[in-house]
Amino acid sequence: MATIGQELGKTVHEPTPDLPEGFQMTELGPLPKEWRVVQLGEVVKLTKGRKPSELMSKYQSGALPYLTAEYFRNGIPKEWVPAQYLSRLPTCSKEDVVLIWDGSKAGQVFIGLEGVLASTMVRVDPENQLEHRYLYFFLLTQFDLLNSKTTGTTIPHVNKEVFRNLPLPLPPLPEQRAIAHVLRTVQRAKEATERVIAGLKELKKSLMQHLFTYGPVPVTEREGVAMQESEIGPLPAHWRVVRLGEVVEVKGGKRLPKGDEFASGPTPYPYIRIVDFKNGSIDIGNLKFLTEKQHRLLSRYIITSNDVYISIAGTIGLVGSIPEELNGAHLTENAARLILNTNRLYRQFLVVALQSDIVQAQIQARSTKTSQPKLALARIKEIPIPLPPLPEQREIARILQAVDAKIAAEGARRAALEELFKTLLHQLMTGKIRVRGLIPTTVDSAESAATED
After folding, report:
1. Which CATH architecture best describes the domain 37-170?
2. How does residue 68 score in pLDDT terms, banded at 50, 70 and 90?
């Protein structure tokens, strides 16, 4: 994320007669007249973390987690600091702003955690004129600058002078609280959406386990399903287990000729790579394209919207289908094309069957275990898959596609909230959007209204 100064451009020092009413020109560009610009070092104090002399692997009463960089990434403590040592160590509460000072993530900022700071962390304490969460959101806008200005040879760390000299737009304290309140509201909505997505993914995982064990029957009726033991686990008695080569034709993709480069821009000949495989389909955001000459040379190595892809080098076992708009696209040599016998196999059922744990285990078992794992085309044909009757294949695919659609919808909502958050972060902290009306006395307590100047 660019800094506020960077987003305002390189001419922020130049006076302009077109200042909006109520604004002043500052080193950060136009800001409301009642705002000040101060150096960050003038309004914060840094407290460096320190490694405790004793740590425990299990929690005991009164202990606090030891906040290493790993803890800040996943929120799971692995070590604890005994209560008797806490008074002599730098700690943080859930209201404190914490910055990673050393390491590859130097410049990353957190709030809302409680524990003992590792030596790679600093607690950033604001003075009375600066609100904690407003400070947190400001530092979010500075990550790229702080990380790019790290110093150190083997272990990078934030440059203290750069940090202290950061220009901070400083509204009156009530407006800081209101700005933080608005941003926190959007942030919470995004977090709630992420929890919904996580729940839907767990639901899909449970559904797949049920559907590929008992078939498309309600959970309450699974005891009435006649079962069989198969080489890939328990299955309904009327299902079959077949080798993939019995129901699909397997063909490989093709790399560009040595020394060739992709076309400089879009052409009618898209080329699908492993990095484009996403969520059982294709991410079209960064597609590469072939020239007319390359297309003619590689014309036999295409994939259609009736086929299924599977990755066979590097990351093994990514599977999905091709959207209609990419019908006839060229396929990387690191993936294979599965051409279905549609009299026996429903395309979307094959996708979810290949994604299931029981088949993924078979795929991994047939891959070479080297620094660059590979799955030979001949071994793909040997992979056993469950084969229900076609109507059951369609029903299984329909159930799982409904969950996928909900996950995709929530994913789009999360992306929209993320974009809204980024826009508001800049607009609110430059005064382009002012928060007026009821100003909360604390960040999380009152309503606020946002209006554009």
Report:
1. Alpha-Beta Complex (3.90)
2. confident
